[in-house]
Amino acid sequence: MRQNTLFMPTLRDTPSETDAISHQLLLRAGLIRQLAAGVYSYLPMGWRVLRKIENIVRQEMERAGGQELHLPVMQPTELWHESGRYADYGPELIRLKDRHGREFALGPTHEEVITALVANDIKSYRKLPITLFQIQTKFRDERRPRYGLLRGREFLMKDAYSFDMDWEGLDITYKAMFKAYHQIFSRCDLRFTAVEADAGTIGGEGETHEFMVLSDVGEDTVVTCSSCHYSANIEKAISAPSSDEQSQGEHSESVEKLHTPHTKTVEDLVKLLKVQAKDILKTLIYVADGDPIAVVMRGDHNVNETKLLNDLGVTTIELADDVTVLSVSDAPHGYVGPIGLTIPIYMDHEEAKIVGGGIVGANEEHYHLKHVVPGVHFSANRQGEYREAQEGDVCFHCGAPLQFDRGIEVGHVFKLGTKYSEKLGAKYLDVQGKEQPMIMGCYGIGISRLLAAVIEQNNDEHGIIWPKPLAPFQVHIIPVSIKDSTQVAIAEQLYKQMIAAGIEVLLDDRDERAGVKFKDSDLLGIPIRIVVGKDAINGIVEFKERHRDERLTLDQETVLSKVMEAAQN
Ligand code: 9G3
Question: Ligand 1 atom 15: the closest Cα is on which residue?
């Protein structure tokens, strides 16, 4: 392609209010433009890369046995009523009415649509298992779209859905998808890790994994063991406090009432009583599906609300407001304690080990109680895994230190079981002629998010450094001055030669200063650059790769073979 005609509006300066490097570079290199918050246009260079990502995904999904189809964006909301999810997502589910007043949702995902489709046309075990996938625009009205393509309101997703006869079959399909995901992210030259994830409200009955690209703009926290390679999203991660973390506390003495004025937080209490946070047992009041509950947690630990929600088997969980706190404890939060509460008390099984007793709220404003021993002075209705893993914890498997990294979720695979097939009637007749529900899985990759994630991991101060399989072009030919007829002639000759050899090549035929050409070339990040400068008269050109500083001077005749060899590896 000739750059003079190419629609690639580069920006010299960093656009304001962009807080992710990928967002800045996508805008500066002229790959995307924002139409509205979280809504983007892909310009030619951005679209070329997106299509390359799509094709890698397509190839690997087909290699894993998936069949590509294409589902509508407009989904009758009857399906969402049938699946019972209509009310689950609130304003995030974008709805509209057609001219007849019928309500549709703009598809945020397609479990309902695909399951209704399969329910209609697959009835026999002979047609199972089957995995169908699409690459489709999704709509999710995020409250705060941000970081450019990393969290948009309209984005491109590959979503696949599998239908098996039984759980054993699903296990085989799940493993095949898992392997395909490894292939996909490896071919995109990404550093990624698969982590155990929380099945969340999608109600997956089985395991679920997320594929995370490590990056400091990632919104997820990944907990990884440095030795046994346990890895999980912090929403799900379990860990053990390091042994010296165990609260020593004094041996158990009788409970003592302390006057602790104006100590609404753990920090206030630590300061006033000159104790450590781990000697305090804080009592948090939550409302779970409308009912108040108490969670008792060590002062230096945090509640993992996802674990709490899953353990209680409720749909919603949130911290109680001040009125609710007063109604269950007679004291404002900060002075709430477990002794005397009449609501259910949940305690993390680690907290139960607080030897020597801890300091708790006295359920009386400006007072706390000391030497309170769980199981002696109060008992929890239930002990479970409610604590959020934190820095300093050790692996519960092998005791090694845990690492905490931020990650961008680029893929998510789920074992769904019968959650949708039951509701939407996807049943098949088994070999005995008996009707059985299909066992489903679903598998997503954020395609547009992947484009941004690749840039997050492949950039320097000059711009993007595309992994070769994804670059918009393989070679960038730059004649230093288009006023020099020799340089233009040789550049054109090399350009035609490479096109004939099937190489994707961009020729910078613009009438621009050399500096501008080189800056744009570094910004766009094409892997191989051929500069045709003053030595062209002697048939000498310069060869440079974007990810290396070294420059080679080559005879014009050897350029093609050098490019062919460099383009492959
Ligand atoms: C909604 C809205 C947002 C959503 C969903 C539904 C996330 C929703 C989970 C999934 C699960 C998998 C198939 C591909 C892989 C992920 N956000 N999820 O179901 F109505 Cl507004 O999408 N779906």
Answer: 444
